[in-house]
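__Record contents__

***
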Amino acid sequence: MNVMSAQTPKAPAASRRGLMIAIGLGVVVLAAIALDTEVVRIGSSADVSQEAFSPDRFGEKEFPRIQAFVVEHAVDAATFGPAVMADKNAAAKQYGTASSTGAMISIRLTAVAGEAKSGVYDLKTDGVPADIHVRLQTGPAINGTDLRDAPGDIAFGKFKNQIEYQDAGSGINRAMKKTVLDGIDTATLTGKTLEVFGVFRLINPKNWLITPVKVTVK
C-alpha cells in the first residue's frame, strides 16, 4: 500500500513579503498613534469635562479672595449706622462697592443673636441706631448674590450667559457655607454673642440682611 502524505502548500515568497510589510506598517502606525496620544486622568485639569463651567469649582476658587476683601474693607457697624441714616448716598460712596442694584457694604459687628426665622437671625448690636433692622442669614439656604458682587470685579461679561452668572453666585454661597457655617451649630445661636464680618446690599438703609464671610461665636 502506498501512503501519500499531504503537505501544506507554502505561500509564494512575494505574498509573505507583502504580509510582513503590512504588519510592519501597522506597527509603525500604532507607534505613531501612541506617541500622539495623551492619557488624561478623569478630574484632572486636562479632563475635557473641566472645560464646562462648574459653579462649585468657581465658588471654591473665588470665596477665599472674597472673604479677604470683605474682612479688609469692613466698616464697623457703629460707624456706618449713623452715617447711612444721615446720608445714604454719601455713606455708600465712602464705604461701599458700586453695584447696579445698590452699593455692596462690607461690615463688621459684634452682636447678640435674637430669634431666627428660616435661618435668618435678628441681631442686636451697640452703636447702631434703633431704626435699623440688622439680620444675619445662616442657612441652610444662603440666598442672593451679595458675596459675588462684594468685590465689584466679577462681571456678567466674564460668563457665557445669565444662567452661568447666577450659578456663579450660588457656587460662592455654597463655598462660604462649607467654609464658615458648617462648623457652627446655626440652630442654637439665639442669645449668643457673635462677631461677624459680612456684606449686604444697601437698598433700604434701615434694613441690613448680612451674608457672612466670617462668624465667631463668643
